[in-house]
């Protein structure tokens, strides 16, 4: 595999302990998905964070162990497990309940190329 670019992702402020920055490989554009058989209500969908997408890629697609994926992201194994569990829960909710999946930090929306995102 060629050398990967990485970006640092700063998270939104929230209650409790602040989240550490994660190191995420930049190797493909994020995309948004929605069911085509039943139009969803505007704003009725789920949002996946870049670190959740990266964990799905590392663990489910590349077959890395949770500890290896956590090391690549620069977080603890427990944090990686918690984020992976949350990402899988969100994806299951979207598939079972016919919700759209929006990728937070969508590169197409940022460049004004997404037909569904406001410009």
Layout: helices, strands, pairs:
Blueprint: E1 5-9, E2 22-26, E3 45-48, H1 50-61, H2 66-73, H3 77-97, E4 100-103, H4 107-110
Parallel strand pairs: 3-4
Antiparallel strand pairs: 1-2
Helix pairs in contact: 1-2, 1-3, 2-3
Comma- or semicolon-separated keywords:
119 residues, alpha+beta, Arc Repressor Mutant, subunit A, two-stranded antiparallel sheet, globular
Quick gist of this model?
The protein has 119 residues and is an alpha+beta fold. Helix content is 38%, strand content 15%.
Description:
The protein is 38% helix and 15% strand. It is of the alpha+beta class. The chain has one domain: Arc Repressor Mutant, subunit A, CATH 1.10.10.10. It is globular and about 40 Å long.
Number of helices: 4
For the biggest sheet, the summary is: 2 strands, antiparallel
**Protein structure class:** alpha+beta
Number of strands: 4
> How many domain modules?
1
Could you tell me the strand content as a percent range?
Answer: 15-25%
Portion in helices: 25-40%
CATH fold name? Arc Repressor Mutant, subunit A
Order of helices and strands: EEEHHHEH
N-end to C-end Cα span: 35 Å
Strand order, main sheet: write it out: 1-2
Provide the gyration radius in Å: 15 Å
Please state the second-level CATH architecture: Orthogonal Bundle
CATH superfamily, by name, is Winged helix-like DNA-binding domain superfamily/Winged helix DNA-binding domain
Shape: globular
State the CATH class. Answer: Mainly Alpha
**pLDDT < 50 runs, ≥5 residues:** none
Mean pLDDT: 76
């Amino acid at each position: 595999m060629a050398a990967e670019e990485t970006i640092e992702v700063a998270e939104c402020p929230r209650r409790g302990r602040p989240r550490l920055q994660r190191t995420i490989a930049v190797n493909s554009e994020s995309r948004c998905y929605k069911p085509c058989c039943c139009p969803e209500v505007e704003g009725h969908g789920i949002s996946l964070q870049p670190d959740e997408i990266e964990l799905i890629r590392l663990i489910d697609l590349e077959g890395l162990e949770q500890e290896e994926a956590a090391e690549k992201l620069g977080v603890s194994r427990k944090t990686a497990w918690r984020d992976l569990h949350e990402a899988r829960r969100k994806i299951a909710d979207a598939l079972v309940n016919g919700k759209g999946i929006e990728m937070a930090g969508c590169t197409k929306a940022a460049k004004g190329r997404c037909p569904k995102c406001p410009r």
